Amino acid sequence: MPYMFISTQIRLENGPTNVGDEYSDPAVMNYLGARKTTMLGNNFSEYHVDDPPRMVLDKLEKIGFRVLTMTGVGQTLVWCLHKEIE
């Protein structure tokens, strides 16, 4: 999976960071130390880490991901990353 989104709430720049959904690469989620959770009332799961986004971005860069774009959506910050397929 060459594309990935990470996000955090503006008031939570120090973490936690949302790093994936239920279809995310398990190896990458394990590398990040992410935990899979399902919020009450949701019918989908998400992966979260306690690290701030900067630390997550640093870790992902080490395994070949690059930031394509970043935006703010309401009170949420979102980064889109890509990894070249080898």
TrEMBL record:
Compartments reported by the entry = Cytoplasm, Cytosol; Nucleus membrane
GO terms under cellular component: cytosol; nuclear membrane
For this chain, one GO molecular function annotation is: GTP cyclohydrolase binding
Keyword NAD in the entry? The reply is no
Kindly give the SUPFAM superfamilies that the UniProt entry links to this protein.
GTP cyclohydrolase I feedback regulatory protein, GFRP (SSF69761)
Q: Major place of localization?
A: cytoplasm
**GO-annotated biological processes:** negative regulation of biosynthetic process
Keywords, sorted A to Z = Cytoplasm, Membrane, Nucleus
Q: Which domain of life is it from?
A: Eukaryota
Q: Which PANTHER family match?
A: GTP CYCLOHYDROLASE 1 FEEDBACK REGULATORY PROTEIN (PTHR16852)
Q: Which family does it belong to?
A: Belongs to the GFRP family.
Protein name (database record)? GTP cyclohydrolase 1 feedback regulatory protein
Q: Which source organism?
A: Xyrichtys novacula
